[in-house]
Design a protein that fits this description.
By secondary structure, this protein is of the alpha+beta class. Helices cover about 25% and strands about 25% of the residues. The protein contains 9 helices and 18 strands. It has helices at about 30-45, 90-100, 120, 165, 195-200, 210-220, 250-260, 280-290, 320-335, and strands spanning about 1-10, 20-25, 45-50, 55-60, 65-70, 75-80, 80-85, 125, 130, 135-140, 145-150, 170-180, 245, 270, 275-280, 300, 310, 345. The strands form 6 sheets. It has a 5-stranded antiparallel beta sheet. The longest helix has 19 residues, at about 320-335. The two termini are about 35 Å apart. The model has no long low-confidence stretch (mean pLDDT about 95).
Length: about 350
């Protein structure tokens, strides 16, 4: 394993923020991952697992412990069954499934990060979530000291959440297995209205896989959600806040606040989210609270393309980013009585 000391972590994140790690290990095999985790646990050394770094906010002081970068590789496709090593680049893997003519993750194109991170966050976009295709996750169980296989049900998936996120110190994902669909070169039925409109079809329709993927990439790029080192709008973690899910009672209170603040003719976004619950849009809340695209005057600002992305304009510190995030959270709470929750994982800092 490659081992570095006092190693910069900022270059390993899409924010390009954060201080160094005391020690950085880069593992290229599952065995190396397990050895590194066991060593850290046996010594009582704090451990930070780093994949693609697209969902990390690391404090300016860095990480006092061992950072383990997962750089494993492996793409195995047998029929409609796909197995990915945790270190595989997710968007590259999606491209290969589209080329193979298999549906199920085509609308997750362009999402930065590694395959091993997808079950942790139950990554989703444009009407698809990985929980709908994941069959099994192979992980190292730090508590049991052994490799385990967790079924889809074992993973306890929900909106941007999973068993892995609920107990972040227990599992290190090694491999992820998916069951895709052979629909004759067509996509899964489109669930997201924006995608269907862009393709000129109705929700529920299927389109050629490459058309679905290319359209999603275009939509994401228009929002600064496809990585581009020359575009500071992509120096972010994508969506910084999750969409709030409210009880019906809380949504009624929120709805009244909207009418009071914005007028009788304004209706907030509302999407079914299970019995007795409604989901609304964090991006809408941020915008209507006064934090529009490009908001800010410092080195950390809201993206010029999407209000849900907080960005590093090139010279920001993590504290600059958190100051902006706290301002947004406080403003939305004051305006609408809703407390936004950050989507990225914070290391050594908190909102």
């Amino acid at each position: 394993m490659l081992e570095l000391h006092d190693a910069p972590l900022a270059p390993l994140t899409t924010f390009r923020l954060g201080g160094p790690a005391t020690r950085l290990l880069t593992a290229t095999t599952d065995a190396e991952v397990i050895d590194a985790v066991r060593e850290a646990d046996a010594a009582g050394t704090p451990l930070l697992v780093v994949g693609g770094g697209s969902n990390l906010v690391i404090g300016d002081k860095g990480f006092a412990g061992t950072a383990l970068r997962i750089a494993t590789r492996g793409y195995e496709l047998v029929g409609t069954r796909l197995e990915l090593a945790a270190g595989e680049v997710w968007t590259d893997a999606v491209a290969r499934t589209v080329e193979a003519g298999l549906a199920g993750v085509e609308c997750l194109a362009g999402i930065p990060g590694s395959a091993g991170a997808t079950p942790i966050q139950n990554v989703g976009a444009y009407g698809q979530e990985v929980s709908s295709t994941i069959t099994e996750v192979i992980a190292y169980d730090r508590r049991a000291g052994e490799t385990v296989a967790l079924t889809n049900a074992d993973c306890a998936f929900s909106y941007r959440h999973s068993r892995f996120k609920a107990d972040p110190e227990r599992y290190v994902v090694l491999r992820v297995r998916f069951e895709l669909e052979d629909a004759g070169g067509l996509s899964a039925p489109l669930k997201y209205a924006e995608t269907a409109r862009a393709l000129g079809v109705e929700p529920g329709d299927r389109v050629p896989l490459s058309d679905a993927r290319d359209t999603v990439l275009k939509l994401r790029a228009g929002k600064g959600m496809v990585l581009d080192p020359e575009d500071h709008d992509t120096w972010s973690a994508g969506s910084f806040f999750t969409n709030p899910i409210l009880t019906d009672a809380d949504f009624a209170v929120f709805h009244a606040r909207v009418k009071e603040r914005l007028g009788e003719g304004v209706e907030p976004p509302a999407y079914p989210a299970g019995a007795g619950h409604t989901k609304t849009s964090a991006a809408w809340l941020i915008d209507k609270a006064g934090f529009t695209k490009g908001y800010g005057t410092g080195p950390a600002r809201i993206s010029t393309k999407h209000t849900l992305a907080l960005t590093n304009r090139g010279e920001a510190t993590t504290e600059d980013l958190l100051t902006l995030a706290r301002e947004v959270v406080a403003g939305v709470r004051e305006a609408f009585g809703i407390t936004l929750v950050n989507e990225p994982v914070t290391v050594g800092v908190s909102l």
